[in-house]
Design goal:
Layout: H1 2-46, E1 50-52, E2 57-60, E3 64-72, E4 79-89, E5 98-104, E6 113-120, E7 135-145, E8 150-160, E9 163-164, E10 167-168, E11 171-173, H2 176-188
Antiparallel strand pairs: 1-3, 2-3, 3-6, 4-5, 4-7, 7-8, 8-11, 9-10
């Protein structure tokens, strides 16, 4: 009877030791997972990120100029900033009146700005008329984070409300329901913003 008790105690102690080891292993895995998730969140908050500073500047001269000031509000700098810009009628008819690509190779550190100018020739829209209809302005950015060695993309959807009685109207951000219509328009026009030439 003494041997049976010893064997039973040894079996129970083995089970308890195995369960304890399993609990410690699971706890370690959860800790590693949470650490990786926190690290990824920290990376995403440090990455470069661009916002439009102020209202876009629109000037009517020999052509229509739309100028955006982009500011890097991320912690990390951005390099190899490329943009593809598309301007088209708010009625979503016809070809875009502006479709261009540009690039900036210099580093854009935290808090620094970069200008983006879109020039629309007068043969598309005469800047001297009193009334010009609204137009969508889409800006697709791609840039690299040299610290994380990752490439990021970002799209901005704006609507310029044109000119009424000779006065330039404001530019605003596009509503969610308008974005779907814009993406349909791009598909019909065979425009893929994610593919750079």
């Amino acid at each position: 009877m003494g041997k049976t008790n010893k064997v039973g105690v040894i079996q129970w102690s083995s089970i308890i030791a195995t369960l304890s080891t399993t609990v410690l292993a699971v706890t370690a895995l959860i800790t590693v997972y949470l650490t990786v998730v926190a690290w990824r969140i920290e990376q995403n908050t440090a990455r470069p990120y661009f916002i439009i500073v102020g209202s876009p500047k629109i000037t009517l001269d020999k052509e229509i100029n739309i100028e955006l000031k982009l500011n890097n509000v991320g912690i990390h700098p951005a390099v190899n900033l490329s943009s593809e810009t598309v301007v088209f009628d708010e009625e979503l008819i016809g070809k875009p009146i502006h479709h261009d690509e540009s690039a900036i190779v210099d580093e854009i550190p935290k808090g620094a700005s970069a200008g983006l100018l879109m020039m629309i020739p007068s043969f598309y829209i005469n800047p001297n008329v009193l009334n010009i209809g609204g137009h969508y302005v889409v800006v697709d950015l791609q840039y690299s984070d040299p610290i994380l060695n990752r490439i990021y993309g970002q799209s901005m959807y704006l609507k310029w409300n044109g000119v009424q009685n000779g006065k330039v109207q404001p530019t605003e951000h596009v509503r969610v329901e308008e974005k779907g219509k814009i993406l349909d328009y791009f598909q019909k026009q065979d425009i893929n913003l994610k593919v750079r030439e």
